[in-house]
Amino acid sequence: MKIYGEKEVWLVTGSQTLYGPKVLEQVGKNSEQVAAGLSASALLSANVKFQPVVKNPQEILDVCLRANSDPNCVGLILWMHTFSPAKMWIAGLKALNKPYMHLHTQFNAELPWGEINMDYMNMHQSAHGDREFGFIGARMRHDRRVVVGHWATERVQQEIDDWVRVAMGWDEAQGLKVARFGDNMRQVAVTEGCKVSAQINFGYEVHAFGLGDLAVVANEVSDADIDALVEQYKAEYTVPDELLNDAHQFEALRNEARLEIAMQKFLDDGGFKAFTNNFEDLHGITGLPGLATQRLMQKGYGYGGEGDWKTAAMTRVVKIMAKGKEGGTSFMEDYTYNFGSSDQVLGAHMLEVCPTIAQEKPRVEVALHTIGIRKDIARLIFNGKPGPAINVSIVDLGNRFRMIINELDTVTPPKDLPNLPVGRALWEPRPNLAVAGAAWIHAGGAHHSVYSQAVTTDQIIDFAEMAGVEAVVIDSDTKIRDFKNELRHNAVYYHLSSGV
């Protein structure tokens, strides 16, 4: 069973009737072999399903319409084995509402130098057949991933899987439901936005609930279920004896179990895969969830603090894209700086950082939470795993959404942090904090982000292109003057592309 189960991508191969039945029969056999080879690859996380070779406009339209209506199909890989006149593709591509990738490959890797003749040349015409198809994508202004190389190589298969994972994230976003427990943090601008526009662009829905709705569920959680979950905590994390033997601290731990059970039941019963809460809006529940929220993120739910529904949805999408890969994904916040020989950012949040990014086995600690409510709350403490990472922020600029991506290098803190009772990650943004911080601010990036060590910049760009939204990258090559010009040019492009 592949990582994504029954979900699949379709390989659709283009040709034309001009070649005759014998050639078309061989094209079909070759295409079947490519699909089977990709499906068999350990590098691909989903099955690739062969579709009959399409040879005319009606067949192309038919397969695109079937893809639209098949819930297991998350996208198409399109390949022109021979020449396939691209005007045939216009109606199908106009109707297609699933993402597609253009695979520029050919069936054989090497040329049979001693035997090659015109029959061989006519059969293996991807070199110019794919260029013809590429034109119609450009003419129709389609943003799409193009992968070039022989289909059986590891590099090409890895690039295909990178796109497949993005298609899975896009599929997840369609109809994703985000539950908001309470409203946004008061007077905060960047976590606001138009939920209607977000649903149009990204596909997900945002629903608001009063805290009393959650409190009803929390009050019904049984002591037996709480006790069983506490035993899981003891098995998965380091839980100090002094916490277990102190009645006050142990009750704080049990309270997190109660909230975790209640929130998961509420989310599952309503079909929600992401949620937000707000430390300014806690009436009816027993404090801001700490360990409970961390645990739900660890299970794959998206989360955004202070009512940040955009980050909550994107956290869920990135977790789907990263399924089965090494490296974690978490809701994150740029919290404080370490200016020195190499300027660094200490990322954290008040309570809610996902333990999938942890370097070591997380430790449970009960500590005082002082913002919004003064209460002792149990949470997981850990340092983030060193290595490359990215931060992704989505902001609503009024006339469009912008995705900002900053490439990072996470490092181990040079000293212990015995008095900091939160999960955290210390990173050095590329190219450096002086440039990255300025670029992030020029772009309007939020203080919240999706932090991930499991997905790439290119995958996030692919997702933005599927959504038709702006994406800007801050990396080792970023220069502020050029970056500001890019923002200006993007403003013109997106203003004109959406109509005036």
| Shape label | elongated
- Count up the domains: 2
Q: Specify the number of helices.
A: 16
- Low-confidence spans: pLDDT under 50, at least 5 residues? none
Q: Strand order across the biggest sheet?
A: 10-11-16-15-14-17
Main beta-sheet strand count, sense and barrel state: 6 strands, antiparallel, barrel
Number of strands: 18
Q: What is the typical, i.e. mean, pLDDT?
A: 97
Termini, distance in Å? 49 Å
Helix coverage percent: 25-40%
Structural class: alpha/beta
- The portion of residues forming beta strands comes to 15-25%
The radius of gyration over CA amounts to 25 Å
GO molecular function: L-arabinose isomerase activity
Family: Belongs to the arabinose isomerase family.
Domain L-arabinose isomerase N-terminal: 8-173
Function: Catalyzes the conversion of L-arabinose to L-ribulose.
Q: What does this molecule look like?
A:
The chain is α/β, with parallel strands linked by helices and 500 residues long. It has two domains: 8-173, Rossmann fold (3-Layer(aba) Sandwich); 177-497, no CATH class. Helices cover 40% and strands 22% of the residues. It has helices spanning 21-40, 57-69, 90-95, 118-123, 126-139, 154-173, 195-202, 211-219, 223-236, 241-244, 247-270, 291-298, 309-321, 433-443, 457-467, 480-497, and strands at residues 8-14, 47-50, 73-80, 100-104, 145-148, 177-181, 205-209, 274-276, 302-304, 329-338, 344-348, 363-369, 375-381, 387-396, 401-411, 424-429, 448-452, 470-474. The strands form four sheets. The chain has a six-stranded antiparallel β-barrel with strand order 10-11-16-15-14-17. The protein has a five-stranded parallel sheet with strand order 2-1-3-4-5, with helices on both faces. A hairpin with a 5-residue loop joins strand 10 and strand 11 (344-348). Helix 6 crosses helix 15 (457-467). The radius of gyration is 25 Å and the shape is elongated. The two termini are 49 Å apart. The mean pLDDT is 97.
